Amino acid sequence: LSQRIRWASKASLYTNAVAIAVASLVFFINVLMLFLAVSSFFSAHAFYSFLVLMLVKAVADFILVKSYASFYNEKFNPAIFFLQELLNLIYIPLVALASQFLGFTWKGRKN
Fold it and tell me: What pTM value is reported for the model?
């Protein structure tokens, strides 16, 4: 977790427009999905929106991760993949926010 926070803390230094756009998109999609997941307890519309967005994201991620695993001759476990999809809803926004507001320690150095 500390390593992820350290990497994400460098996001504010990015100058590549594509990298900034992709990082922003990933963050906002995950925040939106987390919001919809919580809102699903109060609204059927939020629940259906969450399901549709989760399905679209999972299919896109599945294609990307499966092709990566195939290219590098790595094993691909669909059960682990879908569990990680759910965990990423919390993990990605948490790491992104922590990287901007909390410091980190790495190899004895503090930020």
Answer: 0.77
